[in-house]
Amino acid sequence: MLTTESLHHYWHTLTGPGGDLRLFMPQFVLCLTIVLILLLRTFSDHINAKPFAFIGTVIGLLFALWNWMSASISHEPVNHELFGGMLVHDMFSIYMTVFLLAFAMATVVLTMLTGMPDTEDSADFTTLLLGSVVGMTLMASANTILMIFLAVEMASIPSYAMAGFLKARRASSEAALKFVVFGGASAGVMLYGLSLLAGMYGTIHLPTLAHEMLYQMTVTEEAFNPTLLLALVCFVVGIGFKLSAFPFHFWCPDVFEGAPAEVAGFLSVASKAAAIALLARFSLTLVGTYHHAPFEPEVWQAAIHAVGNYLSPVLAVMGAVTCTFGNLAAFGQTNVKRLLAYSTIAHAGYMMLALATLTVVGAKAVLFYLIVYFFMNLGAFAVVAFVRNVSGSEDLDAFSGLIHRAPVVTVAMSVFLLSLMGLPPLAGFVGKFQIFAVLYETGWYSLLVIGGLNTVISLFYYVNLMRVMIMTDAPDQAPIISLPNAGFATILAAIVIYLGILWNAPEQWSQIASTSLTRPERAVTHMEAPAADLVVEASPDKTGN
Amino acid sequence: MIDTVLLTLILFLPALGAAMLALPFFDSDEKSKHWMLINTIATFGLTLLLLGDFLELTNEQGFVPPLSERALATADGQNAPNDLVVRVPWISSSAFNIEYYLGVDGISLSLIVLTGLISVLGAAASFSVKKFTRGYCILFLLLETGMMGVFLSLDFFLFYIFWEVMLLPMYFLIGIWGGPRREYAAIKFFLYTLFGGVLMLIAMLGFYFNSDPNTFDIIRLQQIGQTTGPDAPFSPFFQRVMFVLLFIGFAIKLPAVPFHTWLPDAHVEAPTPISMILAGVLLKMGGYGLIRIAYPICPDGAYFFAVPVAVIGVVSIIYGAFAAMAQQDFKKLVAYSSVSHMGYVTLGIAVLPILSPVYYTWGMAGAMFQMIAHGISSAGMFFLVGVIYERAHHRDLNRFGGLMNIMPVYGALSIVIFFAGMGLPGLCGFPGEIFTVLAGFKFGAAFGIIAAFGVILTAGYILWTVQRVYLGSNKQYEGTPDITTWETLTVLPLVFLSILLGVYPDLLLGWMAPDVEVLVRDLTDYGRSLTDVVTAAK
Fold first, then answer.
1. Confidence of residue A525 (pLDDT cuts 50, 70, 90)
2. A423–B168: do the CB atoms touch at under 8 Å?
3. What is the predicted ipTM?
4. Which terminal residue of chain B, N or C, has fewer Cβ atoms less than 10 Å from its own Cβ?
5. Where are chain B's structural domains?
């Protein structure tokens, strides 16, 4: 029965101190910004929406940082479920929210520097961008499988439009169409997998589902559950699409080639980061340990191990093939964005390798990698955009002899490429080093060797681009890249070098964020799941022991 | 404190100089080159200062305390004011424990001084560079920092970083300022070394995660690796696997047959000063890595693979010598002679199963001496080849002749350097070869005999080269100007050192001996305990 009192109570839980809406402020600010930009649009076509988007992302980022700060100083681990268990608010989701908002801000800055899109289209573009970012933050904090699907769609649909943003270019429209078709199909497959999970275990609440899965696995002592495997594979297909993992990567090179470099950079970092975060949360929740285990720890551990056996090989094989394929295919590319698309595929592969270990340290390595990847990949795409602005081309030829025209930008680009390759003392090396360290630590020697060999293979195309920039002669006198643009690239390059030498702080952040993934202190049955009763009844150990 | 400043300056002074070259002040080529020369001279001066400090570093018994003792004392917080060890925490988190950790002993110090010297000479030889001079100077100085870092680091992670840092400058120095096939040679160099680096990275992770507490400290890892008994953290199998990974990584750099194929390309295409650096310093990193890391940390692997490694050593000696003999290109000949000469280093290090501290000291000290001697003679040979190439614009051995008459000073200097490379008694090439051959003989007569046969082959190709290039008469090059004063000054230190070390090898062996002996003692002790276990089991 709804009474005034209970309404008041609900309102208080939403807006009071530590209330759901307060914790949700970063996303809320973004939504408000979108509404504001859309309203402005009704007044005039000639208002540049980018400054509004910038301010909106900055305010959102400040709220997210505030969340991080207050969570870091709080005495007990931060672990709230928001909106009736739909979302989860823990260090991991805050970390990802900060990351995604910071990247959105950087993308807005980049579009301000490159002037793409122009003022007239800026409202459309920023609306799509911010909407997509909201979806991505939801992906990182989704706590039910329904929310997973909604968040993925919310992040994807604006991306489709952004990929086709250069309306006059056929390649751009083709890319967008391809993206939509692929995206729609894989989303359908994922939804099917998720619905299988919900049907099998009678809940959509992720932690409860995980608990239920482990419970049933222990009770039935089934050696092999084909339905579960099918469900998990379907889910991985959906994520694989977002991650552009082999064999769901086909859209990626075409979309990156067709879309503006700014959008490609956004998709390459933010979209991948959100997908990898979702994958990390999903897989680690399934194998996370729970204090409320109804059985002996060994039995429970065996069930966790069994679930891991479904997921881990799929991720390992996919990751290994993805990074190998990406690195091999990148070699023959003549379009730099296409080349970077394959490089993106390869990097998604590296991150999947770390997640295949299904450990917190693996997630930590991935979270660190994301920070590094933020700067080096954004830098690489930014330079592509700058070169496109002055030469009108994104082909390898446009980069020839760049050192004579823009020495600073060339050095910065070399830093990005070498960092992507993983050469010390740049940040990319540290990221890769941590992934390799996790692979060694958890005994995945085969993946370690594959990752190492991939580093060697990737040498060819990264160095080839550098060779073109530095060792070939310039075709003619092209206009020089402007000072603010060069400054933007220089700052990013400086950060890449800095993070390669002093990486204490980001390592700590990723450590804090990743440990919240297993959530040992979380009560399992937050929602009114029918399975909850079953669990209590069937667990004599809980009270008996 | 003084040692902290000194070691850090040696390491980063070149990099600092490179950073300053980016300032607008260095707008002319001349300024950049002079700055580079000044910078390398200053660094070399600091390495000499370090040498002085090292020789003063004696304990009550009048010996220099071994590096491990000094390093561990520093770890316990008893940092002696001037013990030439620097330890500062760098990355310390729950997962990683990495230190900024530098230190020198006789083994690394001799290579550091060599690096300083060859860099000065390389910088002096770079005055003929005309293209993109400023970029050249920046890369050259960065390269020097990378090389110094490899020899100074005692933290494996730091070592690895410097090992890789030096790749990129080298790639560009070959790829931009090299010969006609420079891009191919540069990428080949990059690829080989990167591959070796990945193997090293895997070994590094292996050591880290199998040590307790986890550490990258090379000195600590050496102690862990030399622990024997059933609870040793590094099991024999683990050591063997890691040894193979490390050996391949270092053998690529060394280079040992069959990992040597990058070397002739890189050497031939690289500009003269870079060839000097490559032959004079870079190849030594491989040998140094074996002596400092692979052998002490994985002694079990070293014993297990002693015969294959020794075989690789003698095969390199013989193969390199025959390949050198077959060359028409002067520079390629010198390049293959490097393969042959570094084979003695491999052989000298490999022979540890003789289990005699005396004889293994011959091998180890011989290998170290050979590295220094080869650094001197091969850098000189590459420089001299460069001198004639600038005048004749080709390097075809069969088209030279009679240069001794036309360029008498050049001829005289060349004869000393080439004979030093040949290993003529009284010049620096001799002691290293004789020690390693003797140790090889103790290890297995066949190894000694084949290695000694390599000495004859070396004499064969060097004498034949001298005959074809310097002797006889040839009208074609009449009027070619003799070596200039600047060039003479560049090569003269090498000539001087070739003679000095040949006549008085104890000068160098004197610094190295205590540390070589400690290393040899540790390794032979380990081997003895292995054989004790075997005998007890019987």
1. very low
2. yes
3. 0.92
4. C
5. 305-538
